[in-house]
Amino acid sequence: MDDEVKQDLALQYLQGRCSDEEKLQFFNLLLTDKNFKKVVKEELALFTQVGTMRMTLRSSDKEKWLRKIQSKAVSTAADEGFSPLQWLQWVLSFTLPGARIPDYLKAIRRLTI
Predict the structure, then answer these.
(1) I want to staple 36 with a disulfide (CB 3.0 to 4.6 A). Which of 29, 74, 80, 98 is the partner?
(2) In angstroms, how far is CA 95 from the centroid of its own chain?
């Protein structure tokens, strides 16, 4: 099993999205594979860090941001030909505090690699 599959399995387990079979595979790897323990530890740290950055917007702010993103998306995406990852990075840079963006981009890269 390659590292990418192990990262996916660890993330699925942390998010509570594993089937019974995947949970069995997760715990077997946890008991037998030292590298998997390291992967789980890294994913847990990242999962916890990203979870602490969540913030709640007022409904009026949500509507304002959504309108801005939609209007910009129509003009920008068509003009510049953004890839889905570039589009997500642009949305994050537009909506998140500046200090948090590198952490989210790191998380996105892990999810898309």
Answers:
(1) 29
(2) 15
| pLDDT (tens digit per residue) in 16-38 | 999 999 999 999 999 999 999 99
CB atoms within 10 A of CB 60: 8
Find where tokens 């037998």 sit. 32
Average pLDDT over residues 7-22: 91
CA distance 23 to 10: 10
Sequence-separated (6 or more) residues with CB below 8 Å from residue 16 = none
Q: Is 40 exposed, middle or buried (0-12, 13-18, 19+ CB in 10 A)?
A: buried
Q: Residue 109 is encoded by which pair of tokens?
A: 């890269």
